[in-house]
Design goal:
Multidrug-efflux Transporter Regulator, Chain: A, Domain 2, three-stranded antiparallel beta sheet, disordered N terminus
């Protein structure tokens, strides 16, 4: 019998940075530019993100970095998604696209190592 681990519900800013490949100052800046990015704070005053907020962060990242929107343009597009009821699905798609791109990069790196074209990385060294 296998026991599945519970899904994490809350994420620190460090967790979110690792998941999204963004720096903390970028996340904090985006919070000032996008009203809907407003993570709760724990008793210590640290940001605590939920899965839904990570999906929205990935949507913002996709719009800014991939689609090349300005911040104002990304705000308008997200508002358009909100009005049409497509925000949740677009945010989930952005997270899925990022996951697929990360997997592709990892597979390419593994293939390069197997072909002898990239050095093997040793964790902890």
């Amino acid at each position: 019998m296998t026991v599945s681990q519970p899904l994490q519900e809350f994420f620190s800013i460090g967790d979110v940075c690792q998941l999204t490949d963004l720096k903390p100052h970028v996340l904090r800046y985006w919070e000032s530019q996008f009203r809907f990015l407003n993570p709760a704070k724990n008793r210590s005053g640290n940001r605590v993100y939920q899965r839904r907020e990570i999906e929205l962060i990935m949507l913002v990242k996709h719009l800014l970095y991939t689609e090349k929107f300005t911040i104002d343009g990304a705000r308008q597009r997200i508002e358009q998604y909100r009005r049409t009821g497509a925000l949740k699905s677009e945010a989930r798609h952005a997270l899925g696209r990022e996951t697929i791109e990360n997997l592709r990069a990892e597979v390419a790196n593994i293939l390069a190592i197997l072909d002898g074209k990239a050095p093997v990385e040793h964790p902890g060294q």
